[in-house]
Design goal:
about 475 residues; alpha/beta; Rossmann fold; Transcription Regulator spoIIAA; 6-stranded parallel β-sheet; 5-stranded mixed β-barrel; 14 helices; about 35% helix; about 25% strand; globular; disordered C terminus; binds iron/sulfur cluster
Length: about 475
C-alpha cells in the first residue's frame, strides 16, 4: 500500500475560507492525502487566500517566496512538493500568479475545489494548471462529503455552506467579483449534510454564506425556501442543539428569519449584522441600500422577537469623504444599539471596486484617530456585556478540553468562551453554568445543579451610555 501523501493548508480570512479548507481536505482525502500541521514535510501546500485585507496579493507573493525555499529544500532531499494557490486572490489574479510565481503548480478559484485532483494530475503532466472560471452547472460541486472520521476529528461544531456569492455590489467590496452571483443550495442537500454531521457527533451548526440571509434554496416541495424556513426544518434534526448563521445583510432580514428567532430555542440569540457606518450619506456612497434608520428598525424587530438577543457588526472608518460629523453618526449608532462586540477597520481601496476611484480621501492620521475612538467604545460595550454575565447561570455547549489541566471549555449562546473544572464526559452537552468571573474575554464558572434561568436582560440597558 502506498504511504499517504501529506497536505498542508494555510488559510487566511473569513469563515468561508476555513470551511473551504475543510472541503479541500475532504476532496483530497480520496486521493490519499492526509493533513499535516507542518509545511516542511508536506507533499502539497495550499495557500487559501483572502482578498479583503490591504495588500492581499503582495502578502501572497511574499508567502510564496518563503514556500519556494521549502520546496527547493525538499527537492534537494529528493522529495517533490507541489504548491497550489486557492481562495479569492487566486480567483482575482490567477493569470498573474502563474506569470509571476513559477514555483506555483496549481491556481484554483473557490468554485473549482472539486476539480483539485484533476488539476494536480494536469500539473503533473503539463507542469502547471489554472482554473478560475465560475462553473454554472454546479456551483456547489466543490462540496465533497466529509468522511465520518474527519467529522469526528473536527469536534462538535461545524459550518455548512448554504449560499455563495453576492449581488449587492457594495462599492468597497471585492466579493461579488471573486465569488460571483448569489446562488443557494437546495434544501435537501443541506438537510443531508446536517444529518450526516449530527450522526457523527456534531451538535452545533453554523450556516454560512457571503449573504446568508439572502438564502433562497429550492425546497423539497419545489418552492423557494427562505433562511427562516430552512432553520425551522434543521431544528427538527435529532442531535442538533444549536443553530447559527453568518453573515447577514440588514436588507435581507425578512419575517421568516424574525419568526425563527421567536420560535426556535435552538437558534442562538446572537446575530452578526454588519452596518459599516451610521451616516446615511456614507451608506449611500457605499451602496449599502439601507439607511441608519432602516438598520435600527431591523434591530428593533429582532429584539421584539427575542429579548435576550445580542448583536455584533462590522464598521469601516475613513470611507472616502467621511467627515467628522459623519463619523460621529457612526459613534451615535453604536451607542444607541449597544453591541456585544464588533469588527472595525480603516478603509483601504480594493483594486477594481468603485470606491477605489473615489477622490476624496481621509488622511491616515484622521483614520487612525477615528478607529481608536470607535474601538474604545466597542471594547467598553463588549466588556460591559461580558461583565453582566457574572453571577448569572447560562447554558454552555461544551466543546473540548481546555489548556489548563482539568478544565473543559465551551461557549455560551453569545459565543463567549466559558471554562469549568469538570470531566471530559460533558463534551457535546449543553449544561447550565454559574459564571463567577471574567478573564479577558473568557468566562470562568462552575456547573450549576439546576436549569438555567433567563439570560441577561436587554443588552441596550447594559450598554447604552457606555
Ligand atoms: S453585501 Fe457584503 S459581500 Fe456583498 S458586496 Fe456588500 S460587503 Fe461585499
Amino acid at each position: 500500500m502506498k504511504p499517504p501523501r501529506k497536505l498542508h493548508i494555510k488559510s487566511y480570512g473569513c469563515q468561508m475560507n476555513v470551511y473551504d479548507a475543510q472541503r479541500m481536505v475532504d476532496t483530497l482525502a480520496g486521493e490519499g492525502f492526509v493533513e499535516t500541521a507542518s509545511v516542511d514535510d508536506a507533499d502539497l501546500v495550499i495557500l487559501n487566500t483572502c482578498h479583503i485585507r490591504e495588500k492581499a496579493s503582495e502578502k501572497v507573493y511574499s508567502e510564496l517566496g518563503r514556500l519556494r525555499v521549502v520546496k527547493d529544500d525538499a527537492a534537494r532531499q529528493g522529495r517533490e512538493m507541489k504548491i497550489a494557490v486557492a481562495g479569492c486572490v487566486a480567483q482575482a489574479e490567477g493569470e498573474e500568479i502563474i506569470r509571476r510565481a513559477p514555483t506555483v503548480d496549481v491556481v484554483v478559484g473557490p468554485q473549482s475545489y472539486h476539480h483539485l485532483p484533476q488539476l494536480l494530475a494536469r500539473a503533473q503532466a503539463h507542469g502547471r494548471a489554472l482554473e478560475t472560471e465560475f462553473p454554472v452547472e454546479d456551483k456547489f460541486g466543490f462540496l465533497a462529503p466529509p468522511k465520518p472520521a474527519a467529522i469526528r476529528a473536527r469536534g462538535i461544531s461545524s459550518f455548512v455552506t448554504v449560499q455563495e456569492g453576492c449581488d449587492k455590489f457594495c462599492t468597497f467590496c471585492v466579493v461579488p467579483y471573486t465569488r460571483g452571483a448569489e446562488v443557494s443550495r437546495p434544501v435537501g442537500k443541506i438537510i443531508d449534510d446536517v444529518m450526516r454531521l449530527a450522526d457523527n457527533g456534531v451538535r452545533e451548526i453554523t450556516l454560512i454564506g457571503q449573504n446568508v440571509n439572502a438564502y433562497h434554496g429550492e425546497g423539497p416541495d419545489g418552492r423557494t425556501w427562505p433562511l427562516g424556513r430552512l432553520l425551522h426544518r434543521l431544528a427538527e434534526i435529532p442531535g442538533i442543539v444549536r443553530l447559527r448563521y453568518s453573515t447577514s445583510h440588514p436588507r435581507d432580514v425578512d419575517d421568516s428569519l424574525i419568526e425563527a428567532h421567536r420560535d426556535l430555542a435552538s437558534l442562538m440569540p446572537f446575530v452578526h449584522l454588519p452596518v459599516q457606518s451610521g451616516s446615511d450619506r456614507v451608506l449611500a456612497a457605499m451602496n449599502r441600500r439601507h439607511t441608519a434608520r432602516d438598520y435600527h428598525e431591523v434591530i428593533d424587530r429582532f429584539r421584539a422577537a427575542r429579548q435576550d438577543i445580542a448583536f455584533s457588526s462590522d464598521f469601516i472608518v475613513g470611507f472616502p469623504g467621511e467627515t467628522e460629523e459623519e463619523f460621529s453618526a457612526t459613534l451615535a449608532l453604536v451607542m444607541q444599539i449597544g453591541y456585544a462586540g464588533a469588527y472595525s477597520f480603516k478603509y483601504s481601496p480594493r483594486p477594481g471596486t468603485p470606491a477605489a476611484d473615489m477622490r476624496e480621501t481621509v488622511s491616515a492620521a484622521e483614520m487612525d484617530e477615528r478607529l481608536v475612538r470607535l474601538q474604545d467604545l466597542i471594547d467598553s460595550q463588549q466588556s460591559a456585556f461580558n461583565k453582566a454575565m457574572i453571577g448569572k447561570t447560562v447554558d454552555v455547549l461544551f466543546e473540548r478540553a481546555a489548556r489548563n489541566p482539568g478544565q473543559i471549555v465551551g461557549r455560551t449562546a453569545w459565543l463567549q468562551p466559558a471554562h469549568v473544572m469538570a470531566s471530559p464526559d460533558i463534551i457535546g452537552q449543553v449544561l447550565p453554568v454559574t459564571i463567577e468571573s471574567l478573564e479577558r474575554y473568557s468566562l470562568l464558572g462552575e456547573l450549576a445543579p439546576a436549569a438555567a434561568p433567563p439570560a441577561p436582560s436587554s443588552l441596550s440597558q447594559m450598554t447604552t451610555g457606555a
